[in-house]
Amino acid sequence: MQRAERLKSVASSNALELSGVSRVFGALVAVDNVTFSVTAGERRAILGSNGAGKTTLFNTITGDFPPSNGRIRFFGEDITELPPYERIRRGLRRTYQNSQLFRGLPVLDNLYLAVRGVGRRRMSLLRPGEDHPARIAARQLAHAIHLEEVADRPVSELSHGQQRQLEIGMALAGAPRFILFDEPAAGLSPAERRELVDILKALPSHIGFIIIEHDLAVALQVAETVTVMHQGRVFKHGLPADIETDPEVQKIYLGGRHG
């Protein structure tokens, strides 16, 4: 089935629904009455200038900063009041602007800990053998994120781009249903950005995601739909080609046509 046909077939099945979501910090309204939905398997980009409320919106979805108002539903379940770990158990994952990795451990051990962290008996003190399902899953993740050749190297020896790839691998641990990527291309070289795009495009089609990204060349390649935010509010929704050429978006966010 073609991807467009698959998306149409699941149009009534929303992975994520935000209804009137706001987040207030004292007198600052960081997210203001945001309402939209993302269908199962959909890939969406959220664009906007610094301070538009994009990362704060992610934090409300994951439970790091519960919304001041509004409701959040994940595959039909209201998760507004759930703590972050319960959202993770339901298949929600995210990456952060700043790497959250175990820098003194090898790549494979980082992936193994991510797999164990979302699985059962994760507090066991017994070190598993190489044939343990969690170790096998870690090696499979290393392959998926193109890090097989450096799987035994400490994270501290990886390039910035490889560390970003590792974060994606850790977010993929434990059969996620939906992932939030927060500026995964930040600080990457052109070659590393191409590698990132290849990895994101190759994700299983049933895993939807939202990506916050300032690099439009990355965001518009991997997204099927785009939401533009401004001053904490949703400014516009559209297809990548329409957003790219929209004069209001260019004027307010892009500073004119980008290359």
Automatic annotation (TrEMBL):
GO terms for molecular function: ATP binding. Keywords: ATP-binding, Nucleotide-binding, Transport. Pfam families: ABC_tran. The keyword ATP-binding applies. CDD domains: ABC_Mj1267_LivG_branched. Residues 16-256 form the ABC transporter domain. It comes from the Bacteria. Transmembrane segments: none annotated. SMART domains: AAA. This is Branched-chain amino acid transport system ATP-binding protein. It comes from Azospirillum rugosum. The lineage of its organism: Bacteria, Pseudomonadati, Pseudomonadota, Alphaproteobacteria, Rhodospirillales.
